[in-house]
Every structure is written in structure tokens, then in C-alpha cells.
Design goal:
mainly alpha; two-stranded antiparallel sheet
């Protein structure tokens, strides 16, 4: 007899220690190695291998080298367009940020469950995207104050603002600036989490339809499966778009620190 399908859409986001949580205390905090940390490490290793294979500097570049050079040139052009010539020194950071998020998003979509491996999309956790956005925010603050000093506060007073309006405009612009890392983190977190939840819900429809019998399965499972395939294709596109948006907004925020526009 077929068993009732029990699919928890939020189970895929649970952070679980791989080697247990005991004897992993440091300064009163548990530092157990989790599935989230493991997939961060996997993403970093994949990125390292990708870069290593593309840095051969052959006279006639192969496809691998061309792929790395294409991504590097893409980030370089984006920074030059948004920051100017000063943006070139940020290419390593923005490139690493973009590629790390891209690989994280794509690895989380891999059908590794067929081989008994359950991928974990750590960019679907606000703590991870929050740390990434705070890194960009820290660079903006450090560069802004190091290059402009207290004149950096002029960023919160648009050029041409009448003097009587400054006490009103300044706090509004300051609050908007302080919310940048929050919105940057939320955008990536929500986009990745929503897609995975939707796929999990549709998979429960497929399982329920199959367990209910051939007729109900044909009515529910087949359309759900077709919709899952379409959404998977869309999620691949979203994975790239979200990595690009994160990198693009980071470059725009750095531009504010460099040029005070």
C-alpha cells in the first residue's frame, strides 16, 4: 500500500551538524561543522578549480580559459561602467562575490538527490546573504571615509538641495543608506528561498498524485512535473540574475564611496 506523502517544504533549509554538535564548543559558542558550511566550502573549492583551470595563460586559449576571461572581462566592464577607472581595483572582490553566489545558487539546483546527495542552497539563508552584504557595506564605509573624510556625509545631501530642506533630506537619505545592506541581503535570500519552496510544494503534488492512483496521478502529477521542469529552467536563470544583481548593486554602492554621486 502506498504511504501518504509527507513533504515539509522548509526541511530543505534546516541547518544540521554533519559530525554532531557535541564537543564543538568554543568560548561558549557551538562551532559544529554544518551542511551549510560544507556547501560553502564546496562552492569555494569549485570556484578555485574553475579559476585554476582558466589561468594557464596559453597563447591560444581553450574554452576553459576563455570562460574565465569572459567572466573576468564582464565584471571589469561592469565596474568601469559604474565606478570608472577607479573600479578596476575592486575587480577581484566583485568577481569573487559574483562567482561565489553564482556557483552557490547553481549547485543548490543540481539534481544530486538522485545520487543520494542533498544539495543545500546556503544563499537561501538570511544570515549568509546578510554577511555578504555587510562585507560590501564595510568596504563602502571604509573607502568613503578614507578617501573623503567627513565630506562623505555630503552623500546624504543631494546636490542643489535648498538649505531649509537639508534637516529633512539628510535623515531620509541616511536611513535609506543604512537600509542598503538589508535590502541587498533580502533580495537574494527571498529569491532563492521562494523558488526552492515552490519546487518542494510541486514535488509533494507529484508524490500525492502518484499515491492516489493512476487517474488522479495523470490529472495532478503530470502537470505538476511539467511545471517543475519549467520552474527549474527559470530558477537557473534566476540564479544567474540574482548573482548579477548582487554584484551590480555592490558596484553601484562602491561608486558612491569613490565618487560621491
Amino acid at each position: 500500500m502506498a504511504q501518504e506523502a509527507k513533504v515539509d517544504p522548509m526541511y530543505q533549509f534546516q541547518i544540521q551538524p554533519i559530525f554532531g554538535s557535541e564537543n564543538w564548543e568554543l568560548a561558549g559558542m557551538n562551532i559544529a561543522f554544518t551542511n551549510s558550511a560544507m556547501w560553502m566550502l564546496i562552492s569555494a573549492v569549485v570556484l578555485w578549480v574553475f579559476m585554476l583551470g582558466g589561468m594557464r595563460r596559453e597563447l591560444v586559449p581553450g574554452r576553459w580559459q576563455m570562460a574565465v576571461e569572459s567572466f573576468t572581462g564582464f565584471i571589469d566592464n561592469m565596474l568601469e561602467a559604474n565606478v570608472g577607472k577607479a573600479g578596476r581595483k575592486y575587480v577581484p572582490y566583485i568577481f569573487s562575490l559574483f562567482m561565489f553566489i553564482l556557483f552557490a545558487n547553481l549547485l543548490g539546483l543540481m539534481p544530486l538527490g538522485l545520487a543520494g546527495v542533498h544539495p543545500f542552497t546556503f544563499t537561501s539563508h538570511l544570515t549568509v546573504t546578510g554577511v555578504l552584504s555587510l562585507m560590501t557595506f564595510a568596504i563602502v564605509l571604509i573607502v568613503g571615509f578614507a578617501k573623503h573624510g567627513f565630506h562623505f556625509f555630503s552623500l546624504f545631501v543631494p546636490h542643489g538641495t535648498p538649505w531649509p530642506m537639508i534637516p529633512i533630506i539628510f535623515p531620509i537619505e541616511l536611513i535609506s543608506f543604512l537600509f542598503r545592506p538589508i535590502s541587498l541581503a533580502l533580495r537574494l535570500f527571498v529569491a532563492m528561498m521562494a523558488g526552492h519552496v515552490l519546487l518542494e510544494i510541486l514535488s509533494s503534488f507529484v508524490i500525492s498524485g502518484i499515491n492516489a492512483g493512476p487517474a488522479f496521478g495523470a490529472l495532478v502529477s503530470i502537470p505538476s512535473m511539467l511545471l517543475m521542469i519549467a520552474i527549474c529552467a527559470l530558477e537557473i536563470l534566476v540564479a544567474g540574475i540574482q548573482a548579477y544583481v548582487f554584484a551590480l548593486l555592490s558596484s553601484l554602492y562602491i561608486n558612491d564611496a569613490e565618487n560621491l554621486h
